[in-house]
C-alpha cells in the first residue's frame, strides 16, 4: 500500500481525497497547526519521519477576492502560501526523492479562449493575484527539479464539505430555501464533482506518473445551465433562477471572474481511460446520490 502525505487535507478537495481513498493508501494528513507549509523545517522533519511515497499539496490560499486586495504583495499571505509554500514542499520532495502532486487551477489562464476549453498546451496568463500566485507555485515546483505532477482543477463542488460553500451547494441551498438566485448566462465553466477529482488523483498516485494534467468535468456549461440542471436533478423550482451577464456580475468584484473558465481533461482520459471523470450533469447526479446517502445514514 502506497504511503501518501497530504497537505491541505482539511480543505474542500483534500478532505474528500483523504476520505475516499482511506482504504487504498496509507494516508497521513497533518493539520496546518502541526505542519505549516511556510515552515520548511517542519515539512522536512515530518517527511523524514513519515517517509511517504508521494506528497499531495492541496494547501492553498483560495479566497480569490481577498487575494486581490493583496495584489503584488509578496509578503502577503496569498503569495506566501500559494507560491512560497509550494516551493518549500517541492524543495523537500527534491531533497528526499519524493514524488509531488501539486494542485493548481484554471485561474492560471486569462479566460479569453472561447472556442474550446484550455488544454495542457495552452500558455498560462493569469489576470488576478490568486491566479498569478498559483502560477508562481507551479513554476517553483517545476524549478525545484523534484519528480512532480501538477494537476489543474476547476470549480470543485462537494456534498461533504460544510465549511465553505461551493457554487453547487450555494445554488442548491438557496433554491431549497425558496430564495431566488442569479446565475451567469454568458460564462463557460467546468464545475467538477469533488469525488471525481479524488478518484482521478488516486489514479495519478498509483501510476506514479509525472507532468501536467487538467482534471475536470468532460463537458462545460454556463452557470445558468448549471443552476437549471441542479433544479432538474433535485426537482426544485426553476422560476427562482434568474440570469445575469458576466460584465454586470463582475462590477461588484475586485477579482474578475474569467469568461472562459474551463479545462479540457482529454489528456487525463487518454492515459487513464474514460469513466473516471464525468459530465457536469452526471457529476450533479452523483452529488445528489451522496447527499441522499448521507441523509439516510443519519436516520
Ligand atoms: N475551491 C476552488 O474553487 C478551487 C478551484 C480550482 C483549484 N483549486 C485548488 O485546489 C486546491 C484545494 O483547494 P480547496 O478549495 O480544497 O482549498 P480550501 O478548502 O481553501 O483548503 C485549503 C487548505 O489549505 C490548508 N492550508 C492553508 N494554509 C496552510 C499552511 N500555511 N500550511 C498548511 N496548510 C495550509 C488549509 O488548512 P487550515 O484549514 O487548517 O488552514 C486547508 O486544509 C488548492 O490548490 C486550490 O488552489 C480550488
UniProtKB/TrEMBL annotation:
MF terms in GO: dTDP-4-dehydrorhamnose reductase activity
EC number of the protein: 1.1.1.133
Enzyme class (EC, first level): oxidoreductase
Keywords for the protein's UniProt record, in alphabetical order: NADP, Oxidoreductase
Keyword NADP: yes
Physiological role: Catalyzes the reduction of dTDP-6-deoxy-L-lyxo-4-hexulose to yield dTDP-L-rhamnose.
Name of the protein in question: dTDP-4-dehydrorhamnose reductase
UniProt source species: Candidatus Daviesbacteria bacterium RIFCSPHIGHO2_01_FULL_40_11
Organism phylogeny: Bacteria, Candidatus Daviesiibacteriota
Amino acid at each position: 500500500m502506497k504511503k501518501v502525505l497530504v497537505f491541505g487535507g482539511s480543505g474542500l478537495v483534500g478532505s474528500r481525497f483523504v476520505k475516499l481513498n482511506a482504504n487504498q493508501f496509507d494516508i497521513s494528513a497533518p493539520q496546518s497547526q502541526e505542519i505549516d507549509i511556510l515552515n520548511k523545517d517542519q515539512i522536512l522533519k515530518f517527511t523524514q519521519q513519515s517517509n511517504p511515497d508521494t506528497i499531495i499539496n492541496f494547501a492553498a490560499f483560495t479566497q480569490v477576492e481577498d487575494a486581490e486586495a493583496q495584489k503584488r504583495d509578496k509578503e502577503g499571505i496569498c503569495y506566501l502560501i500559494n507560491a512560497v509554500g509550494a516551493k518549500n514542499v517541492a524543495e523537500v520532495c527534491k531533497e528526499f526523492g519524493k514524488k509531488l502532486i501539486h494542485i493548481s487551477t484554471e485561474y492560471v489562464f486569462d479566460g479569453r479562449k472561447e472556442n474550446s476549453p484550455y488544454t495542457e498546451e495552452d500558455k498560462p496568463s493569469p489576470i488576478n493575484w490568486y491566479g498569478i500566485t498559483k502560477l508562481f507555485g507551479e513554476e517553483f515546483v517545476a524549478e525545484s527539479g523534484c519528480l512532480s505532477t501538477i494537476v489543474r482543477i476547476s470549480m470543485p463542488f462537494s456534498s461533504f464539505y460544510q465549511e465553505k460553500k461551493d457554487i453547487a451547494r450555494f445554488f442548491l441551498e438557496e433554491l431549497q430555501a425558496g430564495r431566488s438566485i442569479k446565475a451567469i448566462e454568458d460564462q463557460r465553466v467546468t464545475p467538477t464533482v469533488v469525488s471525481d477529482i479524488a478518484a482521478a488523483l488516486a489514479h495519478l498516485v498509483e501510476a506514479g506518473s509525472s507532468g501536467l494534467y487538467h482534471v475536470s468535468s468532460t463537458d462545460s456549461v454556463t452557470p445558468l445551465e448549471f443552476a437549471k440542471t441542479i433544479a432538474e436533478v433535485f426537482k426544485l423550482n426553476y422560476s427562482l433562477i434568474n440570469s445575469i451577464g458576466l460584465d454586470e456580475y463582475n462590477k461588484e468584484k475586485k477579482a474578475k471572474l474569467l469568461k472562459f473558465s474551463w479545462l479540457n481533461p482529454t489528456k487525463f482520459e487518454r492515459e487513464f481511460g474514460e469513466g473516471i471523470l464525468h459530465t457536469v450533469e452526471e457529476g450533479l447526479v452523483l452529488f445528489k446520490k451522496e447527499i441522499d446517502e448521507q441523509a439516510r445514514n443519519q436516520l
